[in-house]
């Protein structure tokens, strides 16, 4: 009887592939979960061995041997493999590609595993002998001083010296320091003691702890600043005391050095970060340390949900409503939903924390599937900020700000406090217009206005990334009266600098935070007890504790009130509450100013008068009436092509196949995508809707097979999104 290896290969095909064992490999060494290098067409791929079978449907003379067994131990344990298989089925994505996604990049290649241990820096002999040159406060000198006391790991350096990476590069070039791997475990340090928990915090900790050892989902619903992080820390300590691992997920922009530092100060063990800002090597090492059970606390963004946890004790999803948990391309999983699947198979508690839980989560609380633990009060002395509406109708505005608001900012500065101006639009202005003839700078590939970025003097398309110089004259009429319309963060920054020339004004958006460590450095420009102004996009909505910040101005809510997306109201509510939560975090009370042309909008009124929970209840009701999630379940077929005809043909065929399939299934469309054209391609979509998840789940695999076989499918680019977030 031949042995046949069934291998998941990272290719866009749903089936497994059969191979013979590699020559001269012992049968006992072939364990599911190990990686194998296999020939695939004319290339070689790293696949994952899933099963060892007795026979194959492929005729034996056509079976090829795998080239190499890459691991002595399974890299993916049974739990992770099983959860990922579930995800491949649920999200209708090829298993080989799902497994590839779950592995850190360093393990997707047929290379030996990196040495166990942590990346660190140490002085070279030259470095040890060198006497300091240049300014004593220069980062390079500070780094040399730190390393003079012994080697330091990257996480330790993150804590000790923001911006050390640039300094390290220059010192390495001069041969003063080297990168090493520290194999000894991080020395245990004396953690700082946190504040005593208040009654509600303690209650939450007790309830969650009482459930340990089995699957139990909790929602920790606490306004910003109510002390959710303290609850997480207490739960992590309990997991550590039981010798277990804890995985904490935070939104992409939430994993700031500040939160890492707080975890590192407070926990008695190493805290491992996992996010896209790290090198492939660092991520691989952390992943492997977790797989060995050595990394006890892992703090990461979305894809950290694929971390192996052989000794799992707790999973926390902070800001569970955050949109960055949904992967928007390729394998379109939702990390929060997948966390529940993992927690179930690991038999651990999962804590979903938020001031503004998603409606999906609230619906699960309503049906009793999740337990809600509220934190109603702000921790310590902090109070919730007081909301104020600024009715913009008929008012004179200065670059989009009302006189009333400018006066309030002036008063705030006068008291020596700090203000935050929130505008969810980066760049200088979203429109550049010719006053002579009405021409507008437009992206021809997306049919949308280009945003003016004045600092770099470029016109950019925020949809496809197109980038071009700003014309000196109008290309239509040669007139030179080009003017801007609307305002982005750059324009607001200019105006506020002009109004408050003696105050630190800091802008935080994608442009100013491109470099590593830059977010931290920007925040450092605000001295805690000095007046200052922060301007920024939603990057500002979370993560930072600014005790002297007492005024928050939201200057663009209206965009969220009128949108085609059925989630717009929910998002508006979450954003307002989150941004407002930046104010008055310490002893000083805060105020939130909302500028709007629609002061009587029912959603806005409900939010301000009765709070987020009431808003959520109102929207849930509306969605029930309209038949939208969470009361129904969706899958979205998206397609794009260079012209409309093939797109239409493909989606028409797909619609016909779907509408005859199951009476419980509704096919809405085909219809143009919210952006019908992007990067030069036409886009359209078909929405499938069912009352029961199972209706969709039964239908989708067969339908996808039919779609793959359509000749029309070859002429378009298409993808399926199960539980889409953006429609
Ligand atoms: P959240 O995660 O809900 O935004 P945090 O845990 O960050 O809230 O707490 C907000 C602030 O309140 C932090 O400065 C924290 O140290 C402080 N804090 C939290 N819990 C307590 C407590 N029980 N007593 C005093 N201060 C607390
Ligand atoms: Zn013109
Ligand atoms: Zn474009």
Automatic annotation (TrEMBL):
Gene3D superfamilies tied to this protein: P-loop containing nucleotide triphosphate hydrolases, PriA, 3(prime) DNA-binding domain
Cofactor: how bound: Binds 2 zinc ions per subunit.
A UniProt-annotated Pfam family: PriA_3primeBD
Keyword set includes Transferase: no
EC number annotated for this UniProt entry: 5.6.2.4
Domain of life of the organism encoding this protein: Bacteria
Binding site for Zn(2+) 1: 434, 437, 474, 477
Co-factor(s): Zn(2+)
GO biological process: DNA recombination; DNA replication initiation; DNA replication, synthesis of primer; double-strand break repair
Catalysed transformations (reactions): Couples ATP hydrolysis with the unwinding of duplex DNA by translocating in the 3'-5' direction; ATP + H2O = ADP + phosphate + H(+)
PROSITE patterns for this protein: HELICASE_ATP_BIND_1
Keywords, in A-Z order: ATP-binding, DNA replication, DNA-binding, Helicase, Hydrolase, Isomerase, Metal-binding, Nucleotide-binding, Primosome, Zinc
Cellular component per GO, a single term: primosome complex
Residues covered by the Helicase ATP-binding domain: 209-375
Subunit structure comment from the entry: Component of the replication restart primosome.
Record-given protein name: Replication restart protein PriA
